[in-house]
Amino acid sequence: LAGHWNSSVMAQDLHDVLDEYFRSEEEGGNVVQDLFIIGFSEYNEALDTELHKNLILQDIEKGGLFNMADPTQSIDPVKNKAEFDDRYNRFIQSLALRYEDVHAMQDGGGLSQLSLWRGALDIHPTKSKEEICQDLLATDHGNFDKLGCLDIVQLKDLCQSQKGDVEEYAPDTCKADNNNSTIIISVLFGIVGVGLMGGVAYFMYKRYENYKRIQKAHEQLMEATLNES
C-alpha cells in the first residue's frame, strides 16, 4: 500500500479528515460536549463502522471507495462524483439506521438524546421535551413523528395555543373542542340571561312592594285626617 500511495498525500488526507472531526466551537465543533451524551461510545462505534470500515476503507467491489488492487483507482469525489455521491448517500442511510439502533437503547429514545444534547451545549433558552415537541409541531412534522412527540404532548391541549399547527398536522382535531366551547358558551350565556331576567323580575317586585306600602300609608294618612275633621 505504501508503495502505491504517496505518504504526503495520505498525511494531508488525514489532516483534512481530522480538521472536520475536531472543528473549533466557532465553526460548529463540540468535541468536549460530545462526551456528555449518553451512548457516546456506541455512536462513535457506529460512525467508525460505517465511515471507515464500510465506506472509506472498504473495497470498491463491496460498495466502498477504496481500490485494494490499485489505490490510485479509488473513487474520487471530484472525478467520480456521481458514483461517489451514490455511495456516500448509502453511507448516510446506513449510519442513520445504526444511530436509530443506538437511540433505541437509551432511555427516552431520540427525544431524550436531543434534550441531553441541548443541555450539553448549554443552548438557551432551555426547553423541556414538551417545548421541543411544540416547536417541531410548528416547523417539522417529520421529526415530530420520528421523535415520538405524540407520546409527549396532547394535541387537543395545544388547540388553545397552537390551533393552526395542530389543524395542519391533524385536521379536525380541534373541531370537537370548538363544538364543546360553543356549547359551553351558549350554556353560560343562557345562565347569565336567566340571571338577568331574575334580577329584573326581583327589582320590579321590590318596587311594586314599595309602591303598595306607600299607597297604604297614604290611605291611612288620608283616613286619619278625615277622622280628625
Q: How does the helix and strand content classify structurally?
A: mainly alpha
> What ranges have pLDDT less than 50 throughout 5 or more consecutive residues?
none
Report the radius of gyration as a whole number of Å.
38 Å
H-E string: HHHHHHHHH
N- to C-terminal separation?
144 Å
Percent range for helical residues? 55-70%
Which percent range describes the beta-strand content?
under 5%
> If helices are DSSP runs of H or I spanning 4 or more residues, what is the number of helices?
9
* Average pLDDT rating: 81
| Structure summary, number of beta strands | 0
The shape, in one word, is rod-shaped
Biggest pleated sheet? none
Key attributes of the depicted protein:
9 helices; mainly alpha; 229 residues; rod-shaped
Report on this structure.
The protein is mainly alpha-helical. Helices cover 66% and strands 0% of the residues. The protein is built from nine helices and no strands. It is rod-shaped. The model has no long low-confidence stretch (mean pLDDT 81).
Short recap of the structure:
This protein is an all-alpha fold. The chain has nine helices and no strands.
SSE blueprint:
Blueprint: H1 7-21, H2 31-34, H3 40-56, H4 81-105, H5 109-120, H6 129-139, H7 141-146, H8 163-169, H9 175-228
